[in-house]
Specification:
The protein contains 11 helices and no strands. It has about 260 residues and is an all-alpha fold. The protein has one domain. The N terminus is likely disordered.
């Protein structure tokens, strides 16, 4: 895929085509798509000021920056992460996910958002490592550093950011869809089996990945500028500002049918 997103794509129609997999009644799918759109839009609006997603994305930026240095473990330890010698990559990512949950558990409204955020940063890191040809089992922190180093330049980090927001958006939409999916599986329904439900999930994942492309272009520019100004130490507040803007972009792509 290219680095720039040009033009306007029929997002609303493509979103409705995903919902059409749940039911073949035009009247029902229209109202169902609208109801789910409203629910997901409300959640995305709430998340603009949520600590969980901002903290998770901030950690992602700092881990990527740390991968360029000579002492990766020390930099990770400074971030409060478990990076002791011999730590496996999976153990590290699991600890990171726990840190996101713990950091936000005191917030009354954090709840699902902390879980969604921890899963999103986990998914972004694991996918990045896997795409470098590493097995997810038996992989060490050195392998994670090597994988992230190749993605630490601004134009490459934007791909990691895209993976994060795609995973985040997928889980946000799924939380709005779960109850509806359960109501539309079984004999007499459009989706008659769990296997067909999985097909629906694949279509949903494809949709959210395409939507998340909207974050890629400005992620590259933002990461380059903020790293230059901060000496590769992007602040939590800066990450929070970026997340708010990224979620506005996602909401626009989702509710208005635009990708740019």
């Amino acid at each position: 895929m290219g680095d720039k997103i040009v033009g306007t794509l029929p997002k609303t129609a493509r979103w409705k085509s995903v919902i059409d997999l749940l039911d073949d009644s035009p009247q029902l799918t229209g109202s169902l798509a609208a109801a789910i759109t409203d629910a997901a839009d409300y959640r995305l609006k709430q998340l603009k000021s949520d600590e969980a997603v901002a903290y998770a994305f901030w950690l992602l930026t700092r881990i990527a920056s740390a991968s360029r240095g000579g002492d990766f473990s020390e930099e990770l330890t400074k971030l409060g992460l478990n990076a002791a010698a011999g730590t496996s990559m999976l153990a590290f990512v699991s600890d990171l996910s726990d840190k996101v949950r713990q950091r936000t558990s005191a917030q009354i409204a954090a709840g699902d958002f902390a879980e969604i955020s921890s899963q999103a940063v986990r998914a972004a890191l694991l996918e990045t490592v896997a795409l470098q040809g590493h097995s997810l089992f038996g992989t060490r922190l050195e392998d994670l550093q090597g994988a992230l180093r190749s993605y630490s330049a601004p134009d490459r980090f934007s791909l990691v950011a895209e993976r994060f927001f795609a995973a985040f958006f997928t889980r946000t939409l799924r939380s709005a869809l779960d109850r509806q999916i359960a109501q539309h599986i079984g004999p007499g329904n459009r989706i008659s089996s769990i296997a067909e439900s999985n097909e629906f999930g694949e279509q949903l994942d494809r949709y959210t990945r395409q939507s998340a492309r909207v974050t890629r272009v400005f992620a590259s520019e933002w990461y380059s500028l903020r790293n230059w100004k901060s000496g590769h130490r992007i602040s939590h507040d800066e990450a929070r500002g970026f997340v708010a803007h990224a979620l506005d972009k996602l909401r626009g792509a989702f509710t208005e049918g635009r990708l740019a």
